């Protein structure tokens, strides 16, 4: 059975307590956390329990993880997480060539060891820059996935489409290493400009039936609904959940 989460980053512009209540009322049981939230809300674990929500996966900044892996482990245990994903590299920190990305992949493997030894799944969450061609059809995400079979992926399908790739092909390419998928939709060209060009799931340009079939074939049983900048997070949460439940 596929479990459905909601990435709380999409609701960062609303009070957390209201967001958790809204999500529980909308029918969510699980949410996914992001780095800044853990510093801002020291009572997060208690707030989740009060709302009847769980946090099986979370995002945690790579620099912070390397600086103090035990802090990440403590947060993961406090919220009952099973997986921790490093989520992002800012533009100045991104490698520019094959050798740089190979070194970065090795860095991820090393950073993940304490987390994995503590019993968590550890991996990387992609945007579009990891899907650029480094030459010969090799992408940074290939190097990340190829660094270790224990280094898992949270494949963001919205960013995959934004990068010009077929999401089905990407799911097939990384079958065996995808622990979770971000279910995110891309608005038609020129639409939803006030929402950074993203759409509620099922109200954009992605064809979800073949994507869902590919994810199921790949054994991915954790879907995380995300919209990076909804103007109305209640609308987005409810419409997106209805779409995914209808898969």
UniProtKB/TrEMBL annotation:
UniProt cross-references to InterPro entries, sorted A to Z: IolE/XylAMocC-like, Xyl_isomerase-like_sf, Xyl_isomerase-like_TIM-brl
UniProt keyword list: Plasmid
Superkingdom: Bacteria
Ranges for domain Xylose isomerase-like TIM barrel: 23-230
Gene3D superfamilies: Divalent-metal-dependent TIM barrel enzymes
SUPFAM superfamilies reported for this sequence: Xylose isomerase-like
Transmembrane segments: none
Protein name stated in the entry: Xylose isomerase-like TIM barrel
Source species: Phaeobacter piscinae
Organism lineage: Bacteria, Pseudomonadati, Pseudomonadota, Alphaproteobacteria, Rhodobacterales
């Amino acid at each position: 059975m596929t479990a459905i989460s909601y990435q709380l980053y999409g609701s960062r512009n609303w009070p957390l307590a209201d967001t958790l209540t809204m999500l529980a009322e909308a029918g969510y049981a699980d949410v996914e956390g992001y780095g800044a939230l853990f510093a801002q809300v020291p009572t997060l674990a208690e707030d989740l329990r009060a709302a009847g929500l769980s946090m099986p996966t979370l995002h945690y900044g790579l620099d912070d993880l390397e600086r103090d892996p035990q802090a990440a482990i403590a947060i993961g245990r406090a919220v009952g997480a099973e997986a921790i994903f490093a989520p992002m590299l800012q533009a100045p920190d991104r490698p520019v060539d094959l050798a740089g990305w190979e070194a970065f992949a090795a860095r991820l493997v090393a950073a993940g060891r304490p987390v994995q030894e503590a019993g968590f799944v550890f991996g990387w969450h992609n945007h579009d820059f990891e899907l650029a061609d480094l030459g010969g059809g090799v992408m940074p995400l290939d190097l990340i996935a190829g660094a270790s079979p224990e280094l898992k992926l949270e494949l963001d399908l919205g960013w995959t489409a934004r990068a010009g790739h077929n999401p089905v092909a990407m799911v097939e390419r990384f079958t065996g290493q995808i622990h979770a998928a971000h279910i995110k939709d891309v608005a038609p060209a020129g639409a939803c400009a006030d929402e950074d060009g993203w759409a509620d799931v099922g109200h954009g340009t992605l064809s979800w039936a073949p994507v869902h079939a590919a994810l199921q074939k790949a054994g991915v049983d954790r879907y995380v609904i995300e919209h990076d900048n909804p103007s109305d997070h209640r609308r987005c949460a409810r419409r997106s959940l209805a779409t995914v439940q209808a898969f």
